[in-house]
Amino acid sequence: MTSPGDVREERLDALLTAVIDQLNSTDPRLNDVMESLVRHLHAFVRETRPTESEWLTGIDFLVRTGQTCTEHRNEFILLADTLELTTAVDDVNHAGPAGATPSSVEGPFHSPRPRGRTGHGSPPAPNGSAARSWSCAAG
């Protein structure tokens, strides 16, 4: 007999396959990057099992981030910087020799411990608004 968990996993696998089958760029590298992104996002959902409310809170954060973007201000770039993704991309592409100083992605305004942050935790919310905290359901 098939358990509900097995059926759920089969449905999730089918969803993932359907999305990946839609990738049809003429650029093979773009297809590879997008497939990896989709696989990681689907794995994130399987791992964290967010509730609908938690998912909507995350989507709301991204929507509000996008709404604060203007022609001259891109909050998604700042979000990538806050999450250290810009540095990670720079590091995987320009590691340099052992002992080399970090690349200039840190820039002249870099602060190793930004104001209002005492260590690891939630990144600041866009436009200085209070970030909503939420936890993932145990699974």
The shape is: extended
Poorly predicted runs: 128-139
Count of DSSP-assigned helices: 5
Please count the beta strands (DSSP E, at least 2 residues each).
0
Helix amount:
40-55%
Strand content: under 5%
Rg, alpha carbons: 19 Å
Plain-language structure description:
- The protein is mainly α.
- The longest helix has 21 residues, at 28-48.
- The model is unreliable at 128-139 (pLDDT under 50).
- The chain is 53% helix and 0% strand.
- It starts with a helix and ends in a 46-residue tail after the last helix.
- Helix 1 (4-22) packs antiparallel against helix 2.
- It is built from five helices and no strands.
- It is extended.
Using brief descriptors, characterize the structure shown:
139 residues; mainly alpha; 5 helices
Helix/strand layout:
Blueprint: H1 4-22, H2 28-48, H3 52-67, H4 75-82, H5 85-93
Task: State the gist of this model.
The chain is mainly α. It has helices at residues 4-22, 28-48, 52-67, 75-82, 85-93.
